[in-house]
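Hey,

Quick one before I head out. I ran the complex with heme C overnight. Inputs first:
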Amino acid sequence: MRYLAVSCFAVAFLFLAACAPEPPLVNQYNTAVPPLPTLDASQIARGKQIYQQYCASCHGANAEGAANWKTPDDNLNFPPPPHNDDGHTWHHPDRVIYEAIRDGIRDTLRPNQPIRMQPFGDKLSDADIRALLAYFKSLWTREHREFQYLRTTEDEIATPPAP
Ligand code: HEC
């Protein structure tokens, strides 16, 4: 009988926990932020199409990265990384991903090295780059999306837009 009572209690607890509203998201500045935005399906589709055209040749058809992406070459440069959950794109706030696509990636510690990734700012519009970001976000688990969303809200506080 006692076990029954305990398990009823456990079931009731789980039920209440499942029904409870999700706790608000709070970033590292202790700022409560709006809930994780829903992604727009047409923006994702547009991003996926742009990705296939401009990025898949290096980052893989499904953004899985080059097979050997964790192994640097003789020059200590890393092959194109994945943009799905396996990679580190989701570690960066929106601005950093956006600027990497627009401005390309240089080796800041070794400026004489060839550019690591060409800039796409002359080929892609602002809306194209935002669509790419939406496509990448659609590849991430909710946990990774929340992590990246919080980093983005912190970055927006730390790096206000240029006047
Ligand atoms: C010619 C190959 C090539 C193409 C095409 C290419 N990339 Fe890259 N990309 C790279 C390489 C190599 C790196 C790693 C650079 C480094 O960190 O040294 C990289 C890194 C990145 C990163 C940084 C990831 C991180 O976690 O730091 C982003 C974001 C990115 N690419 C997005 C794109 C997008 C979007 C496109 C298409 C518009 C694209 N790339 C096309 C080669 C390419």
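The longest strand covers residues 25-26.

Talk tomorrow,
K.
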